[in-house]
Q: What sequence folds into this?
């Protein structure tokens, strides 16, 4: 078997539904298997997902085991020569897995591979490629110098800013949101260190892959969407506790030889925690006011799919004003407010706040490419063919948005 995909879920059933739809399309033509390990979700994930994906191998935990332990729990069952650890809040293009497997074939010493990631607003996610943690890089990131000099090897070293995001590079650290490993690398490392409950396990595994003599590669040839912030909100106390706790664990584990490094790094982490707390206070959103204005929304689809999506949108928990339909291609002769190739201009003209992109009308690859062209003012919602939901996010620090058909008891 060529590939085993392992996804850990925790209370994000609608995002996972869209993710699995894209993963299944990416597995076409590949000898692959898909595992979903659920960490005791309480949102009805089992009832929602299991009937819809009968080819997926589900494991339903009765406790929240954390990301690393849950991922490792199915490694012995995985038959693939390559293992992909994938977040549930991701969308992958149809050719993604084949391209990654081809890269491994052409780079025999590649132990782990990551891809170019964008968020739900189309912005490049710098954590797609990173350097190993250091007190210096952390200080430059905290003080804002990394943003002032985003391409500097010194000041932007935390995110390997000197390495182009559009070219392939050997890097130190790959993101656990999409991390494909050769079976040999899994054998040498044993998978994730289960001492990391959430966050930091990807940094640790990247470190051990390199220590085993294999390479970590950032592959720019494929782009995925990583919505971020679904399982844990970035500005929450839970995030600060888990993330910074993981960084301290990593430093103590791998930088034991230098007490000075540990002290400096722990100082940087404490500063980061204080800044995160201040940031939470400053960005605490005001209470919503009654009677919000309808969100101007357009749907990119042919007429039949447009009608179907309208039925789904009626279940939205907030007011939506449908501005019209955007035609997918030039062969669409029915009335539309514009063509998908002019998406950015249409958003400005109609002051759109939401765009629904429908897979089936377009490929996931085209949807990912279009997401990068939509102005930040508008949220992109993605609706996979035959799914009962649509999801999107334009806030990397908080929860995303979903619209879903009510469950039938």
A:
């Amino acid at each position: 078997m060529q590939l085993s995909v392992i996804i850990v879920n925790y209370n994000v059933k609608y995002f996972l539904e869209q993710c699995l739809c894209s993963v299944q399309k990416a597995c076409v033509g590949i000898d692959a298997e898909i595992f979903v390990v659920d960490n005791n979700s309480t949102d009805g994930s089992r009832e929602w997902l299991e009937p819809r994906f009968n080819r997926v191998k589900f494991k339903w935990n009765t406790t929240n085991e954390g990301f690393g332990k849950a991922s490792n729990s199915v490694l012995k069952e995985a038959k693939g020569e390559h293992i992909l650890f994938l977040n549930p809040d991701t969308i992958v293009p149809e050719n993604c897995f084949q391209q990654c497997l081809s890269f491994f074939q052409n780079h025999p010493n590649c132990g782990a591979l990551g891809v170019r990631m964008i968020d739900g607003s189309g912005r490049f996610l710098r954590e797609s490629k990173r350097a190993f943690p250091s007190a210096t890089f952390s200080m430059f990131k905290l003080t804002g110098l990394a943003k002032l000099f985003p391409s500097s090897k010194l000041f932007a070293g935390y995110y390997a800013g000197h390495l182009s995001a559009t070219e392939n590079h050997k890097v130190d650290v790959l993101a656990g949101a999409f991390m494909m490993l050769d079976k040999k690398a899994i054998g040498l490392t044993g998978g994730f260190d289960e001492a990391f409950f959430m966050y930091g396990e990807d940094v640790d595994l990247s470190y051990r892959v390199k220590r085993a003599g294999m390479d970590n590669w950032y592959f720019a040839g494929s782009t995925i969407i990583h919505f971020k912030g679904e399982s844990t909100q970035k500005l929450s106390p839970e995030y600060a506790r888990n993330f910074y706790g993981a960084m301290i664990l990593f430093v103590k584990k791998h930088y034991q030889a230098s007490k000075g490094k540990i002290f400096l790094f722990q100082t940087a982490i404490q500063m980061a925690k204080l800044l995160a707390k201040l940031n939470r206070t400053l960005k605490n959103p005001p209470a919503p006011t009654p009677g919000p204005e309808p969100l101007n929304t357009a749907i990119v689809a042919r007429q039949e799919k447009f009608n179907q999506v309208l039925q789904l949108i009626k279940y939205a928990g907030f007011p939506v004003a449908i501005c019209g339909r955007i035609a997918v291609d030039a062969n669409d002769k029915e009335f539309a407010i514009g063509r998908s190739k002019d998406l950015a201009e249409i958003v400005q003209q109609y002051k759109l706040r939401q765009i629904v992109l429908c897979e089936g009308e377009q490929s996931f690859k085209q949807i990912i490419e279009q997401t990068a062209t939509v102005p930040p003012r508008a949220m992109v919602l993605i609706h996979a063919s035959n799914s009962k939901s649509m999801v999107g996010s334009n806030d990397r620090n908080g929860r995303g948005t979903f619209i879903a058909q009510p469950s039938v008891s």
Summary: The longest strand covers residues 215-226. The chain has a mean pLDDT of 86.
